[in-house]
Design goal:
It contains one helix and eleven strands. By secondary structure, it is an alpha+beta fold. The strands form three sheets. It has a five-stranded mixed β-sheet, with no helix packed on it. A four-stranded antiparallel β-sheet has the order 5-4-9-10, with no helix packed on it. A two-stranded antiparallel sheet has the order 3-6. The protein is globular and about 35 Å long.
Length: 174
């Protein structure tokens, strides 16, 4: 009889632990702000011309994300000086969709969703690209290249001319 009671208590304990974990995991996923899902998915820093560049954002979530008021910057290696590429983004990135932000001299075939605010803010080797959900306080994503002074983990290689660096897009389940 004692074996049955012990087994029952073990099964009950395991079930309660699994239920508690599932509920806590569910509440974390529901509480995560939509903006946390947006990632910098691809960067080109030079193509047909030195300013033939772009930054592509990707929304892996199941809901559209309004990026009004967000900011995209580049950070130089020397001194870590940060300059706006776009001081105030506008638009909506659809669920599982892309948003292309390009230099005004971009010559690619895909029409950009938005152009850089300043033409003097070109991205070069060894820069970091930082996406903020506000006026430069809350970092949503960060990509460092080459000898960048800031990166999410390790910096990516600088892309070669007319080439880009790209993160593999994947969906997240909530």
């Amino acid at each position: 009889m004692q074996r049955k009671t012990t087994f029952f208590l073990l099964i009950t304990s395991a079930f309660i632990s699994l239920l508690a974990f599932s509920l806590s995991h569910l509440s974390i996923a529901q509480a995560a702000p939509a903006g946390d899902a947006i990632v910098i998915s691809e960067i080109q820093i030079g193509g047909a011309t030195a300013n033939d560049e772009f930054v592509e954002l990707y929304n892996p979530s199941d809901i559209a994300v309004d990026i009004a008021g967000w900011r995209l910057t580049r950070k130089s290696t020397s001194g870590g000086t940060q300059t706006n590429l776009v001081s105030s983004l506008s638009g909506v990135i659809p669920a599982h969709g892309y948003f292309l932000i390009a230099h005004p001299n971009y010559t690619g075939t895909t029409v950009p969703d938005m152009a850089y605010s300043a033409t003097s803010s070109a991205v070069t080797d060894n820069n970091s690209i930082v996406l903020y959900s506000d006026n430069g306080i809350t970092t949503v994503d960060l990509v460092g290249m080459g000898a960048a002074s800031a990166s999410e983990s390790a910096a990516a290689l600088n892309p070669q001319e007319s080439m880009s660096i790209e993160r593999k897009a994947s969906s997240i389940s909530t």
